[in-house]
Amino acid sequence: MLNRIDAVLQSATPTVMVPRHEPFVPMAQYGHRFLAASDGLWLEARRAWLYLRWNLAKQAQVAMPYGAVEPVVQVQKVPGRLVEEFISFARDVCPLECAAWIIWNDETDQCKLVKMVPTSVSSASVAFNRPALGDNEHLVVDLHSHGRLPAFFTSEDNRDDRGEFKVAGVFGKLDGDIECRFRLCANGLYIDMGNKWEGQ
């Protein structure tokens, strides 16, 4: 008999065997789970704005009696004008850093850019109090700038992003030829989305 806490954890985040002889059925409810597939362990996650299926650990040594799945990343699209608005904001405050969220309302299907009010800010960091999301609102894209520095994700970014599902974007060299990087953050998994996110 499972410990009560283990039972709750396994119920909330189960590991599911991918069937070999019938179609795989994606999860319908919001949350995430793990998939035991023929080639290893996968993460599957669903949010109002996201469906993700991604391999976490590949293996080919042991014959697993499971089926196969393919990687999927489906993200709510956001208007490119909101990203452009953030770039303009970041250029205005350069060389200081800044941050903003792109929030999507699943009832109205509208996105908005919310600029963060810093509690402390410098040319190397920005801190802010996280705003509360309203009903039907979801954080889709978390943006921040690096002023005159290159665009990259720091170890502090990794710590901040570890427990969340969101797209993260960073913009650098805002005083010249702008650099940017995007990644999908999935509870500690980081998927590189390059320097142009298709969600734009």
Key words describing this protein structure:
Cytidine Deaminase, domain 2, 5-stranded mixed sheet, metal-binding, 3 helices, JAB_dom_prok, 15% helix, alpha+beta, metalloprotease, 200 residues, hydrolase
Fold blueprint:
Layout: H1 4-12, E1 15-17, E2 31-37, E3 40-47, E4 50-58, E5 72-75, H2 80-93, E6 99-105, E7 110-115, E8 118-121, E9 126-128, E10 137-145, H3 155-161, E11 165-172, E12 179-186, E13 189-192
Parallel strand pairs: 1-2, 10-11
Antiparallel strand pairs: 2-3, 3-4, 4-5, 6-7, 6-10, 8-9, 11-12, 12-13
Tell me about this structure:
By secondary structure, the protein is α+β, with helices and mostly antiparallel strands. The protein folds into two domains: 4-75, no CATH class; 80-192, Cytidine Deaminase, domain 2 (3-Layer(aba) Sandwich), CATH 3.40.140. It is built from three helices and 13 strands, in the order αβββββαβββββαβββ. A six-stranded mixed beta sheet has the order 7-6-10-11-12-13, covered by helices on one side. Strands 1-2-3-4-5 form a five-stranded mixed beta sheet, with no helix packed on it. Strands 8-9 form a two-stranded antiparallel sheet. The longest helix has 14 residues, at 80-93. The mean pLDDT is 94.
